[in-house]
Structure formats: C-alpha cells, structure tokens
Design a protein that fits this description.
mainly alpha; elongated
Length: 128
C-alpha cells in the first residue's frame, strides 16, 4: 500500500510540474506576442512622424482622396450603381487602414504594464 501511495504522489507531482510548465509556456508566448505588438506600435508611431508618410498617407490618401470621393458621391450628377459601390469600397478602404493603424498603435500603448502583469503571474505560478 505504501508503494502505491508513493507512486500516486509521484504522478500528482509530475502532473503539477507539467501543468506549471504549460502555464509558463503560455505566459511566455503571451509576453512575446505583446512585445511584437509593442514593436508594431512603435513602428507606426515612427511612421506617423515621417514626412513622406504624412504627405502620402495622411494628406494625399486619407484627406484629399477621402474628400474627392465624398464630393463625387455628393455631386448631383447621376452615377451608376457600380460607380457608387466602387466609391464606397474606396471610402471603406481608407477607414480600414485608419482603423488598423489606430488599433495597432493602441495595442502597444500599455504593453509594459501587461508584460509586468504577466511576469508577476509567471513568478506566482512558479512559486506555488
């Protein structure tokens, strides 16, 4: 009976160690993902400060192209259905890019805090 209890205790200990390793691996993976998000956010911030980005994307694409498409849609001249759909897709593309940049930048904005929380959790998992 004593041998059986020792074997069960050993199995439980191995299961606990395996579970901790899996938890730590998941935490490490999450930390790496957050670091990648932070790198992308920094690249977006750097990009937004670049004169060429401002000229091409902000001014020419977001602003001027958006205004041009809006004017075409609001102009009282008759438009075919496919022309309207095309213009709506173009406006949607502008919105999608703006949204993507905004969200990726936001994802990286609190990365240091999230990494610290995960590191604290990792320490807690390892200490139990």
């Amino acid at each position: 009976m004593n041998e059986t209890n020792k074997a069960l205790d050993s199995e439980i200990l191995i299961d606990e160690i395996t579970l901790k390793k899996e938890q730590v691996a998941e935490i490490d993976k999450a930390i790496e993902e957050i670091k990648a998000q932070a790198e992308l956010a920094k690249a977006i911030v750097d990009l937004r400060n670049d004169e060429k980005y401002i000229k091409v994307i902000e001014n020419a694409y977001f602003k001027s192209e958006g205004e041009r498409i809006s004017k075409c849609l609001l102009d009282p001249t008759p438009l075919k259905r496919d022309q309207i759909e095309n213009m709506m897709e173009m406006m949607s593309a502008i919105r999608i890019l703006k949204t993507f940049l905004l969200h990726r930048e936001h994802d990286g904005s609190n990365s240091e805090e999230r990494i610290q929380e995960l590191n604290d959790y990792r320490t807690q998992v390892l200490s139990n």
